[in-house]
Amino acid sequence: MTIAIKGSQKTSQVSRRSVLAGLGGMTFCLAFGSDGASLLSEAQANTMANAQVTPWVRISPEGTVTILSAGAEMGQGSMTNLPMILAEEMDADWSKVAIEMAPADAGVYGYMMNDSPRMMMIVGSRATMYYYADLRLAGAQVRKVLLMNAAEKWGVDVSMLRTEPGVVINPGNGQRLTYGEIAAFGKVPSELPKVDAKELKARKDWRLIGKGVPRRDMAAKSNGTAVFGLDIKLPGMVYATTLHSPVHNAAPESWNDAAIKAMPGIIATVQLANGVAVVADRFERALAARDALKVVWKKGLASGFNSEEALNRDYAKIHHDPNTKSESVHAAGDAKAAFASAAKVYTAEFHSDYGYHAQMEPLNAVARFNDAGDAIEIWEGTQAPDIARTAVAKALGFKEEQVTHHQCYIGGGFGRRNGGDEAVEAAHIARAVRRPVKLIWTRTEDLAQGRFRPQSFQCLEAATDASGKVTGWKHCVIGDGGNMLLTGGMRIAYYGVPNQSLELRGVSHGVQIKHWRAVAHVFNVFAIESFIDQMAVDANMDPIQFRFERMGATPKARACFETVARMCDWKAPRPAGRAIGISISERSGSLGAGVVEISVDRTSGKIKVHKVWVAADGGIIVSPGPAKANVESAIIYGLSGVLHERVTLKDGVVEQTNFHDYSLMRMSDLPDEMHVQFVDVETRPTGLGEIGNPFIAAAVSNAFHRLTGKRLRHLPFTPERVLETLKT
Amino acid sequence: MVSFTLNGRQVSVDAAANTPLLWVIRDHVGLTGTKYGCGAGLCGACTVHLDGKAVRSCQTQVSEVTNKTVVTIEGLSPNASHPLQKAWVALEVPQCGYCQSGQIMKAAELLASTPKPDRAQIVAHMDGNICRCGTYHRIIAAVEQASREG
After folding, report:
1. Does the beta-carbon distance from B32 to A224 stay under 8 Å?
2. CB contact under 8 A, A230 and B32
3. Could you identify which of A348, B95, B99, B146 might form a hypothetical disulfide with B84, taking C-beta atoms 3.0 to 4.6 angstroms apart as the criterion?
4. pLDDT tens readout for residues B29-73
5. Does A226 lie at the interface with B, CB-CB under 8 angstroms?
6. How far is A660 from chain B (nearest CA, A)?
7. Which residues in chain B touch residue A359, judged by CB atoms under 8 angstroms apart?
């Protein structure tokens, strides 16, 4: 069993046709049409206008099945998961499956989401969700070709044959041919057989999907051999690091160039659009030069920006000003009428600070030009190799074919690693110094130049009728980032509130902002589910009952609530000084309800989360181990954000500089218990990388209210804010 | 030139005395299992053993290790056979994996001095090592498993 990841052979160039470079065997290429994915023979693929059509599966005469994986591996297990889905339908012997990372070619290896062009960017828990159907069909096609070849060899009707992992069998006479044996003589027809969805394996016949196949990256990640972008070393490579403008996206005007260049080992300084790069023969020398850089910066858009003032003062003003521009996010029924005829109206406001990804591997990339200077290779771990490739091509004035991207393991993504910024910088620097370059951002740089989850303000209003049912719903979000970064999680389709008006009021600060594990769900779900709890308390009802009877929870939501209620023994008394809170969130097609049990140290203001229970409906669970690990990971990521993390800017500059003042969850904060369960359903897989995250703020806040009678309304719940809230 | 023993092998490097051991190991010698996380001794991703004690290699100047013995994740055991490494794989501890060399090296220090640690001892010992993927509970379980089977 071997795993080859591009970049793992540090100095060799793994060609995009490496899978083909064997000795015979059968190769299946992949092409996508308007009707979805289809496999092609190599012969047919090579006649296509796009000569770059690439292999997807290869079966060697020795029996090794090499499957390319488009699952950027940042810890979620997609690298293993995606080939496993194909192997299932192919009925491959998993112990003989080798995995290689797919090249950055979205037209061939990308997934299709709605009607958008194919893409490889793995964000929003998309990998399994969007590749699942295509990969099953492709696997079934490969199996069909193997069966046809065996039938022809034996002179029997193909319908008589069946497969076991890696073997075609004739049950009539017991004859067997391994896939490798077939590959030695077999032909891939120029027109591959079609496979109908009805021909796919029944769930009861699955041997791999849902069965707990071990991840393939565990050994390498336990012995130091897993290769991240940071670990690439090329002959003649030099090292670079950067100092970016403290106010985002301001250009350098001048710097102490002569003094820097006089320092030991310094090869060059390179001006970037928003920073200065120093290049040295050793990284420690580049670091020393960065420390010595004195740059005069031009003004940036965020110059003078004070994030706390904006959030605590300006956003509420914008909300109360009827003349501010508002954009409708969603409307249903007649919200105005529902409020006009309401028996009771509720309102509440919430705030949330900026958040930083804090992925453990700071941004980095390696770039190397060919001698002619008309082609470049990039090495990095990225969530979006396709976007990085396009961005590099654009920055250099190249065609995409001039850029080869080598995917590496990703030392944490969480939404930070999909813009191509570090690859573009490395490319610019490599062009300037005419040598292979490894660019590494320092942690301080990674934080100062973060692309943050935006800060935001939420105002919610609800109208209830005479029976107490919630009939009207208004939610206004204010912040920077538009629909993309602010409105996720606002739609409460898992409830049955008939009249809704959801709106967005945008501001612009010039601060870099971006997706962050579940992004807007974090603050919107916090507001929504805290608000519902507030109404349940007012109605003197059990919070789950309130959601069923007054919010019209859907059957899917009820199943999640009922499951988690059973898991945590919802009605059971809790130990003295502890209380539980509940919340629910949708994300990437999945739904998850969660409960936390907390206590509060009223002297220090520290909240301790003791237990967490999550019940999630993620459709069919393709890989139970990693699925559970993803939810656990998101619980911790979510808690870290809820209890600790805040970025603030003063005079346009990020105030935090490293992990001493941007605090992350540590082992001592870990809940004593975490329980994750999936609701057993037959529906298609949906995303699970982020479902464990957005529910948790409201669950903690609701537990806090049950314990103290006070409500936390500003994320994160730092000890200072907890103490302030307790005093109110 | 600075000379020291690295994973049982004598090495000599031409690095300035104040060069962080991290970059000496990674760039001068070429062992990349040890990771850069914060450069300030705050996350533990760069943890290695210096004469058997876990240290932050980003905060250790190469001159401090002259004639001493340094062990990295690559030298922790032959063929990744350390009980911790076996437990790490068996329990599928890593997610992104970037911090795990540091986690394992830190945990190995604990088991060397306290072969049967309880949960509180594990947490106290490991609290300086950040895992952003939140694998802490699996790290605890793996240390416990290694301590039982080691």
Report:
1. yes
2. yes
3. B146
4. 999 999 999 999 999 999 999 999 999 999 999 999 999 999 999
5. yes
6. 7
7. 96, 132
* Beta-sheet pairing, A714-715 with A344-352: parallel
Measured at the alpha carbon of residue A65, what is the angle toward residues A103 and A684, in degrees to the nearest 5? 70
pLDDT score, position A138: 87
Phi-psi region of B20 (alpha: psi -120 to 50; beta: other; left: phi over 0): beta
- Model confidence pLDDT, tens digit, residues A101-119: 988 888 878 888 888 888 9
Angstrom distance (rounded) from CA B105 to CA B115: 15
Complex ipTM over 0.85: yes
Each residue's pLDDT tens digit, B115-127: 999 999 999 999 9
- Which residues 375-414 in chain A show a CB within 8 A of chain B? 409-414
Residue from A626, A684, A623 nearest A133 by CA? A684
pLDDT of residue A108: 78
Residues 595-624 of A with CB under 8 A from B: none
Residues 441-460 of A with CB under 8 A from B: 442-444
Contact A711, A701 (CB under 8 A): yes
Ranges in chain A, pLDDT < 70: 1-24, 30-54
What are the start and end residues of each CATH 3.10.20.30 domain in chain B?
A: 2-75
Distance from C-alpha of B71 to C-alpha of B54, rounded to nearest angstrom: 9
- Residue the block writes with tokens 């991290």: B22
Radius of gyration of chain B (CA): 15
Which of 3.30.365.10, 3.40.50.880, 1.10.8.60, 3.40.50.2300 is the CATH number of A308-355+452-727? Answer: 3.30.365.10
Select the residue from A221, A239, A287 to test the B interface by mutation, using most B Cβ atoms within 10 A: A221
Query: Does the beta-carbon distance from A362 to B36 stay under 8 Å?
Result: yes
pTM score: 0.94
* A-B Cβ pairs (cutoff 8 Å, strict): 172
CA distance A314 to A307: 10
- For residue B137, the chain A residues in CB contact (below 8 A) are 632, 670, 674
CATH superfamily of B78-149: [2Fe-2S]-binding domain (1.10.150.120)
- Over A83-134, what HEC string results? HHHHHHHHCCCHHHEEEEECCCCHHHHCECCCCCCCECCCCCCHHHHHHHHH
Q: pLDDT value at position A27? A: 75
Residues of B within 8 A of A443 (CB-CB) are 37-40
Interface test with A, best of B47, B96, B130, B131 (most A CBs within 10 A): B96
pLDDT at res. A112: 84
